[in-house]
Specification:
alpha+beta, Ribosomal Protein S5, domain 2, 4-stranded mixed beta sheet
Length: 128
């Protein structure tokens, strides 16, 4: 049984890593979510560090932004086994919500699953 947790070590917090992610990262999108990712050399023993972001321009109220971020984290947490199992590389991820309306969890979960499967096909299988 794979642990479906998202611990402190799996969170992307380093300003330097986030800047590198935006300057050198690649992108995969499935509306309304965009994944920016980068192969990284991380100090920790985790294979993926993740962050989420929601535009203040599209969602003025913090309660709405926080709800969407919570949904994004939950969608990733439930589907992270797609990328964390059988990988030897380390990556940094940033999930951006680009939609204009408050989403339902089912939409978020299905889009994140699709993005992670596309990521696995592009990045992880290209190394073998």
């Amino acid at each position: 049984m794979i642990k479906e947790t998202l611990g402190k070590k799996e969170r992307l917090k380093s300003k330097k890593e986030i800047e590198l992610l935006f300057s050198e990262g690649k992108s995969i999108a499935q509306f309304p979510i965009r994944l920016i990712y980068r192969k990284a050399e991380l100090d920790d023993d985790v294979s993926v560090k993740t962050a989420v972001s929601v535009s203040k321009r599209n969602f003025k109220k913090a309660v709405d932004r926080n709800r969407i971020k919570r949904l994004l984290r939950e969608g990733y947490r439930k589907n992270k086994y797609i990328v964390t199992s059988n990988t030897t590389h380390q990556f940094t991820f940033m999930f951006l919500y680009t939609g204009k309306k408050l989403p339902e969890y089912d939409l978020i979960a299905s889009k994140i699953k699709g993005i992670l499967q596309k990521f696995k096909k592009l990045e992880l299988n290209s190394d073998q």
